[in-house]
TrEMBL record:
Sequence similarity: Belongs to the IspH family.
UniProt key word Lipid biosynthesis: no
One GO BP annotation of this record: dimethylallyl diphosphate biosynthetic process
Gene (name only): ispH
Protein's UniProt name: 4-hydroxy-3-methylbut-2-enyl diphosphate reductase
């Protein structure tokens, strides 16, 4: 291995857990404590291998579809949100549901319902098949057309070009989405913008931090899982903004020593579904290889907190007689979240 002994790490801030992921993970943890295992979770609660396997060990059972949950059992809906038909199905099966959909995803669902109610054609920018997009599109399938990036724009058909609005998945690349919107507006000049940003604060801040450090990095390591949209976007952003190489890893031991050859500066960040413990493992791994000097690059301060889902708060209060504590989003926490 030829890594220099004075190599530097640029550590992005913010990185890792966002308020929506924190809330979703704590929801499953609290549900396990309160109701006892098994607690069923529809889809991965958040898109991270480590989080899912840790919760599995504690008694969470992840299923793909609601029909796999035994009648009358408790099921948590993941942070990515579900279509109304999933709620209807759960009611038919008499499941006890806890909805951990991120409030910022719910906001996009509400926008979809409102614009569909006003009979707009809604152009939903997002990745085909992603759970969040499936959930949002399910709010108004007859009004929503998926636009999967700038190259998909020529395929879009609308009923009335004067009554078109765009919405988006929360975890997209900001720059690529703006390019998609630019091309859509060329075709539909009356295209309306969403009432507020659909790409969430966490996605934007994590991309901004990577943009600020990428051109100083020979290599950017993004901690995150392959199915995590916002993590994959961070690799793309790093490469687009000057990093010579960038790789996604779930765990430190996936870092190939060959990646470090001739590398003076390594950027490190993590997706919004990644617990900080995994980043610390990466920093320790790099320190052992001569990259012990760590400089933090801060793009934004985050302090957003979300209350736990109403149904869970009600049951926690019934048990303890007091309102559950507000969630604390603590990026330095050593445990799962
Ligand atoms: S990435 Fe954004 S939308 Fe997704 S859970 Fe986190 S805060 Fe919510």
């Amino acid at each position: 291995m030829s890594a220099p002994s004075t190599g530097q790490v640029l550590l992005a801030a913010p990185r890792g857990y966002c308020a929506g992921v924190d809330r979703a993970v704590v929801t499953v943890e609290k549900a396990l404590e309160l109701y006892g295992p098994p607690v069923y979770v529809r889809k991965q609660i958040v898109h991270n291998r480590h989080v899912v396997s840790t919760l599995e060990k504690r008694g969470a059972v992840f299923v793909d579809e609601t029909q796999e949950v035994p009648e009358g059992a408790t099921v948590v809906f993941s942070a990515h949100g579900v279509a109304p038909v999933v709620h209807e199905e759960a009611a038919r099966l008499r499941l006890k549901t806890i909805d951990a959909t991120c409030p910022l995803v719910t906001k996009v669902h509400r926008e979809a319902v409102r614009f569909a109610g006003d009979d707009f054609d809604i152009l939903l920018i997002g990745h085909e098949g992603h759970e969040e997009v499936v959930g949002t599109a399910g709010e108004a399938p007859e009004h929503i057309t998926l636009v999967d990036g700038p190259d998909d724009v020529p395929n879009v058909q609308v009923r009335d070009p004067e009554k078109v609005v765009w919405l988006s998945q929360t975890t997209l690349s900001v720059d690529e989405t703006m390019e998609t919107v630019r091309r859509l507006r060329e075709r539909f000049p009356a295209l309306q913008d969403p009432p507020s940003d659909d790409i969430c604060y966490a996605t934007q801040n994590r991309q901004q931090a990577v943009k600020q450090m990428a051109d100083r990095c020979d290599l950017v390591i993004v901690v995150g899982s392959r199915n995590s949209s916002n993590s994959v976007r961070l690799v793309e952003v790093a490469l687009e903004h000057g990093a010579r190489a960038s790789y996604l890893v779930d765990y430190a031991d996936e870092i190939d020593d060959a990646w470090l050859e001739g590398v003076a500066t390594v950027g490190v960040t993590s997706g919004a579904s990644v617990p900080e413990v995994l980043v610390r493992d990466v920093l320790a791994h790099l320190a052992e290889r001569g990259y012990g000097d760590v400089e933090t690059i801060t793009a934004a301060e985050e302090s957003l907190l979300f209350a736990l889902p109403t149904e869970l708060r009600r049951d926690l209060k019934a048990r303890s007689g007091a309102e559950p504590e507000q969630l604390r989003h603590d990026p330095a926490a050593g445990h799962l979240h």
